[in-house]
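sanity check this record:
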Amino acid sequence: MVNTNPFHMSKEMMDSLLDDYEHRVKRIIENYGDRPDFPNVERYKITKDELEDYLFDYQAILDSEGTERSRYTIGGIIIIIPIVVLAFLYPVNKMPFGQWTMLLAILAGLFLWGAYTFLRKMLLKMRIEKLNKRNANVRQYVEDILAYHKA
């Protein structure tokens, strides 16, 4: 019987949508967990709940960055802020740097966007480092799982 539901997704489609850090690690455990040479949770002195919490928190940190679309939307807004400010402060024929004013405003906006992006990435890195320090055993277990999968 063919499913005619337009919102139905095959397992392959769901897997491609859920290809984030948390689901990738869980899928590796699910696929290779019964092998004798696979990293064992008990050897790292962690529980399944600690692993679940770590993966959830790690994924939440990664997801806090937003989608690519939202990042570019924010970037576009940040870039036009200096242009809008100058447009409200000065009439067109009395711009402070003449014909170069808008170009300088765009460059200022690009600088602001770069600073925002740098700060956002730095904050993301700090949050991940803090999570990894609190959960050193779990982090090591996850790294060993990912290394096992690559090997």
User: Anything to note?
Assistant: The CA atoms of residues 79 and 111 lie 8 Å apart. DSSP finds six helices and no strands in the chain.
